[in-house]
Inverse folding.
DNA sequence: CTGAAAGCGCTTACAG
DNA sequence: CTGAAAGCGCTTACAG
């Protein structure tokens, strides 16, 4: 139509629209629309003619127009701190898969765990482009959430910050951390350390896992020694490696350590290896998340395995419900977890070892 | 407007549109549009009034409408086999970041490496929703690409399949594989194996890395023994673990192995550990990709490090150029790589070891 | 510097 | 079962 483009324009091959298909098939646009959208009341002959025309013209519906008309886009956003943190990468894969089953497309936001960016995401940087948001915040506060004005349906992954208006899908962090720590205590370890404490008020996960750790110490009759609780700036391998080094430098190093995620544990394992400390002989190590790396680590890593598949599936499900217009009170859904005991607390398997592939995805 | 919704409708709080803002600010919609889009010719006083109205009404532009009008969406798709394969996860993070610099949003497609799904992606499942596509295919053939009818701008990551119409951003695979293999040969290893060969014709990367491996053997004056070339079904840890086991079961096991990616190498390391084979003492191991896991593996992994940052950046750049209407001939861009020598070929570092954190992202 | 009006490509009541 | 027409919420020539 508008022939105002620069001279680079490929060809005069004008974009094919519904009307063109209708003209070629000799029907109204309504009928073409019906065929495209799979409505029932179209005679087979008409349908065939329309489909032939669609093929011949290579017509594709313009989704922006459809979205504008229908008031929805079929796109949801997944906002995570970093896409290449294995836990979030696995989650992303599962969310994309679960969304696809509902014909939803996933758009990705990376917040870097930065509060300002998380506020933007909560406030709807993509307002009207996305129909819903699955959000795993790191630094967002309850106040931020309460101040939210955007009304895009949202489901939060992770701890429930305050009692805001959003659905949450979570793991029972306190219980899971207690189980992991208790497992270490039952190995006969007396000085069980923790790696992963965090100061800032928004660090809900860290707080809950720390609480579970402390409950377990009490239950096992072990003294709580704050010197054995190592704070970290972030939850990457490097933080775990450094924290482990600090713990080893103490006069009374631990004989077990519960790391608040697997990445921290993998970093800790590396430090232990470099220092020549035997795992689990000298120090037993447990993590949290059950990322695939842990199944191939040296030694393989004992960890809390949340049901990530269900986490993703439930999140998409709750979101779809809200998107469909249901407006129940904010819900909090718990997904199951289990403790997976591997070599880092149970010793190396006798050779020949079980094929670690059996623990991985078969794909 | 249409008050036809079911009784669940939250409130009569009608969606705020441009017109409402214009009315409140006492200007025309054109002026509001100018303010929203940051055009220059608006008096400061007017701008302030409009901005106040936007805040008061909590107005957000409807992106679908804007897209429809402008003929573009500002959204690009990234299609990869699996989001939780570390290499693709790292790439995804970098692509999302690079896209953001250009105000582009990234939507993710997972193909599972399945040809049918890859054909769909190439044919534009999201036609008109996305302005462009960055695509890392696994099973797609040159014929598939030649048959492509969708004209969404596309940039391919990985090997150039045939000489189709698409831009490619690639690593010099043959050279890189040759360097890695030569490194092993220069350690004095005589029986250098390869893990990662693949049969199917679309496996361009496998073919090129195998070629580089063979070139290096010839250059080093080593005999080519096809029994030392291990094929794999996929490029996951489990495949590497199994392939390594097969190589070890031979009468004449290798004293070095070049794995076509890091995941295969990590699986191989696990098998070697279980079998009590010393790395690099008995067998030196090298990989390809430089994923973060390799920096914390036991031992740390020697690998070819492609400049992933540049890979992502260039891909987005080429795509943006095509999206802007430039239609040069298909381009093939090579990004640099380097061989990173670590413990798996160079032995363990003397204690105290360098902090592995220094090798990781600092974040 | 601002206003009034057309139109992007669909879907959807409303008629027939 | 199908047609003609309105309208989703923007942006953009076109006037002034």
């Amino acid at each position: 139509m508008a022939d105002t483009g620069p001279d680079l324009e490929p060809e005069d091959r004008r974009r094919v629209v519904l009307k063109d298909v209708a003209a070629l098939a000799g029907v109204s646009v309504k009928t073409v629309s019906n065929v495209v959208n799979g409505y029932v009341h179209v005679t087979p002959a008409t349908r065939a003619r329309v489909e032939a025309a669609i093929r011949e013209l290579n017509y594709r519906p313009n989704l922006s127009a459809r979205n504008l008309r229908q008031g929805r886009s079929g796109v949801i956003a997944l906002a995570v701190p970093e896409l290449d943190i294995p836990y979030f990468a696995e989650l992303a894969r599962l969310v994309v898969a679960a969304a696809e089953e509902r014909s939803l497309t996933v758009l990705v936001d990376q917040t870097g765990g930065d509060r300002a960016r998380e506020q933007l995401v909560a406030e709807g940087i993509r307002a009207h482009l996305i129909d819903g948001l699955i959000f795993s915040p790191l630094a967002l506060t309850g106040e931020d959430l309460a101040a939210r004005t955007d009304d895009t349906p949202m489901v939060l992954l992770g701890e429930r910050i305050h009692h805001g208006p959003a659905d949450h899908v979570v793991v029972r962090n306190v219980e899971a951390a207690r189980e992991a720590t208790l497992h270490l205590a039952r190995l006969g370890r007396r000085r069980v350390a923790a790696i992963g404490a965090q100061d800032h008020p928004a660090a809900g996960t860290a707080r809950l896992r720390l609480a579970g750790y402390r409950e377990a110490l009490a239950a096992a009759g072990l003294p709580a020694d704050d010197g054995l609780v190592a704070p970290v700036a972030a939850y990457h391998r490097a933080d775990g490696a450094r924290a482990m080094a600090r713990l080893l430098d103490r006069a009374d190093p631990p004989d077990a350590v519960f790391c608040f995620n697997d990445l921290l544990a993998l970093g800790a394992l590396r430090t232990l290896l470099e220092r020549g400390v035997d795992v689990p002989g000298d120090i037993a190590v447990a993590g949290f998340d059950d990322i695939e790396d842990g199944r191939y680590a040296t030694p393989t890593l004992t960890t809390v395995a949340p049901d990530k598949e269900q986490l993703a599936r439930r999140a998409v499900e709750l979101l779809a419900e809200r998107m469909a217009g249901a407006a129940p009170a904010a819900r909090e859904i718990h997904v199951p977890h289990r403790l997976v005991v591997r070599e880092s607390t149970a010793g190396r398997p006798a050779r020949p070892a079980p094929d670690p592939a059996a623990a991985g995805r078969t794909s």
Q: What stands out?
A: Chain B is about 40% helix and 15% strand. Chain B touches chain A through 76 residues (CB under 8 Å). Residues 1-12, 349-363 of chain B have pLDDT under 50 and may be disordered.
